[in-house]
Amino acid sequence: MAVRGTEMERKRILVGISGASGIPVAAEVLKGLREAGTEIHLMISRGGEMAVRQESAGSLEEIRNLADQVYDNGNIGAAPASGSFQNMGMIIVPCSMKTLAGIHCGYSDSLLLRAADVILKERRKLVLAVRECPFSTIHLRNMYELSSMGAVILPLMLSYYNKPESLQDAARHLAGKILDQFDIEYKPFKRWKGMDIDGELQRG
After folding, report:
1. What is the pTM for the complete model shown?
2. Are the C-beta atoms of residues 114 and 85 closer than 8 Å to each other?
3. How many Cβ atoms from other residues are within 10 Å of residue 122's Cβ?
């Protein structure tokens, strides 16, 4: 049996950043993937770039530098637009409702949307870290139907059992939930340990 080259010995994951609130989570996901040695292929929509400027403590360039490859979102002929481009799947974090709708109806007018469309047709894992509050009936319908197509709907919803002491703690917990979908261990992620019969938290 032929041995695969070094290109496919690493996990390769596509990451999309669209124009919704949640950029600190996207940054933590990119850092977690990088620390795990994952090959990161990044696409950022125009709205995503605006959100980075609004929410990130760092610059857009610093976000881009966390990836191995960054694509022009207008280039729908780039490598992730083809099913022959091997990868483990795609994370869109944050995923705006416009992006959600575009994926749902197959309206692939950008590389990010085309890449997500390819992930679905190739039956690879697509994780949509959706961000909106409250959800409209249209949003809920789109999420339901994408879930039935195999996408993982992972809303950016806070947890409290992990006792977050900062916004970074909250972002890291959400990043851990996302990375779990690809079996990528993320050290800052505090897992639920369970409670005993008296309601006391288990330790360790």
Report:
1. 0.91
2. no
3. 15
pLDDT above 80 (res 3): no
Tokens 């992990």 label which residue? 162
User: Alpha-carbon torsion 110, 113, 116, 120, what sign?
Assistant: negative
Q: Within the chain, how many helices (H) and strands (E) appear?
A: 7, 6
Task: Give the span between the Cα atoms of 59 and 82, in whole angstroms.
Answer: 30
Question: Who wins on pLDDT, 57 or 3?
Answer: 57
What average pLDDT does range 15-41 have in this prediction?
A: 97
State CA 115 to chain mean position distance: 13
Best CA proximity match to 116, nearest among 70, 152, 72: 152
pLDDT tens sequence across 73-91:
999 999 999 999 999 999 9
- Cα→Cα distances 200→65, 104, 129, 191, Å: 43, 43, 31, 16
- List Cβ neighbours of 115 (8 Å cut-off, separation of 6 or more): 14, 16, 43, 80, 81, 90
Q: Within 13 A of 98's CA, how many CA atoms are on the CB side?
A: 12
Q: List residues bridging with 14 in a β-sheet.
A: 41, 90
In this structure, are residues 15 and 43 in contact, taking their beta carbons and an 8 Å threshold? Answer: yes
What is the SS3 assignment for 96?
A: coil
The owner of tokens 């809920």 is 140
